[in-house]
């Protein structure tokens, strides 16, 4: 077996005493519902226990620092007044201003945004950029909107949340349901209301390049996932050209992962999105699929593949499975149907705690979200510095810095996991939470 003897996969190499701890975590898990916040709190609590944090520090770091719900009532084209809940959460800013995307979906909740903001705190810490964690949400389905209507909502969100956004407070970026164009409107909305052409400092990342965005930001998360997968294959002495890959999600992250991993020689044999799933054991034609999705809006109906229900994507036998869609997708209900060697979490919190534990028992190697999909926030950091210094970075430079950082942090997490007999999630969380705690103590605890 390719994983034999590698302590990083857990199982036999746990430190003594962890048996009891696992039992404790088990009891707690029974009270957890499937959801981003529960998953994030669970992962934090485990790290906090290993780091031996006392209760008051634990609560301070668990946060969040600020959690806001705002009602906006923009008038949409056509004259209808809409009533929309929007959220902004700054989870922790011990390491710097909060950084994290804007999620726009019909069912996003304040709890989701809090969990995602927490994830960002660990992600920015782990990938070593001077930011804390934040996130925002707009509770509306963007698929139902014309471009004009979406712009109205984005601008209304920014006006409502303006005082919580800024280079030293919280800097948003794209996430599910939002894109580069929306970030351009945000940049304009802020400079317009300040009566100036540019903003004073970086208020938003993931902007169009023409407005001070950085080249390569749109692809950064997906490319980062692929760099991490390549690093893992190298460690395990697996030949990427022999790997069969399955991807859930064909949006910003999933579509870039698919295109990039095929360039490396791997075969993508199944892809799912919200409309359905397509399978081709000989390898999907990613270019043709992308073109098809651009035309019809989803993968369903793509001719050069077998069409199946979207949930079936997790049952396809493969070497590498990449969830790059939503949270809480790998659960107790489907975890035992998964047939893969490696899971690389492109999405945030795609695996519930109980499923995580089962994957671990099944010796399936999991590369955690806070490492795997951190390429986006790393390049956002480059955009922030570029804008602050009025610099212009070339694509080659961005790519090189991204590749180096992903490789370096992968090695750090992998080596730490091996040394301590931890899973990669446990190792990543311990490093990330440890750094935030160090910053909290360095700042001092007195008011
Ligand atoms: P997106 O909106 O561009 O794409 C989401 C994709 O997932 C779409 O193809 C959609 O159809 C599909 N999808 C949604 N629900 C699904 C389901 N139940 N089953 C199958 N497919 C489903 O979003 P994105 O920006 O690609 O983000 C995807 C994930 O990656 C999210 O968890 C996000 O938080 C995370 N992430 C994104 C970035 C980024 O830079 N965009 C950075 C880090 C993490």
Computed structural class: alpha/beta
Strand order of the largest sheet: 10-9-8-7-11-12-13
Shape: globular
Overall pLDDT confidence: 92
- Total beta-strand segments: 13
Counting DSSP H or I runs of 4 or more residues, the number of helices is 14
Question: In percent, how helical is the residue content?
Answer: 40-55%
Please outline the helices and strands.
Elements: H1 18-29, H2 36-50, H3 55-62, E1 66-72, E2 84-92, E3 98-99, E4 102-105, H4 110-127, E5 132-139, H5 147-161, E6 170-171, H6 180-194, H7 217-235, E7 244-248, H8 252-263, E8 267-273, E9 276-279, H9 286-296, E10 306-308, E11 320-323, E12 342-344, H10 353-361, E13 365-367, H11 369-372, H12 375-388, H13 395-420, H14 424-443
Parallel strand pairs: 3-5, 3-6, 4-5, 7-8, 7-11, 11-12, 12-13
Antiparallel strand pairs: 1-2, 2-5, 8-9, 9-10
The structure holds nicotinamide-adenine-dinucleotide (NAD).
What report would you give on this structure?
α4 (110-127) crosses α14 (424-443) and α5 crosses α6. Strands 10-9-8-7-11-12-13 form a 7-stranded mixed β-sheet, with helices on both faces. Strands 1, 2, 3, 4, 5 and 6 form a 6-stranded mixed β-sheet that branches. The chain is globular, with a radius of gyration of 21 Å. β7 (244-248), α8 and β8 form a beta-alpha-beta unit. It is α/β, with parallel strands linked by helices. 44% of the residues lie in helices and 14% in strands. The protein has helices at residues 18-29, 36-50, 55-62, 110-127, 147-161, 180-194, 217-235, 252-263, 286-296, 353-361, 369-372, 375-388, 395-420, 424-443; strands spanning 66-72, 84-92, 98-99, 102-105, 132-139, 170-171, 244-248, 267-273, 276-279, 306-308, 320-323, 342-344, 365-367. Bound molecules: nicotinamide-adenine-dinucleotide (NAD). Nicotinamide-adenine-dinucleotide (NAD) binds next to α8 and β8.
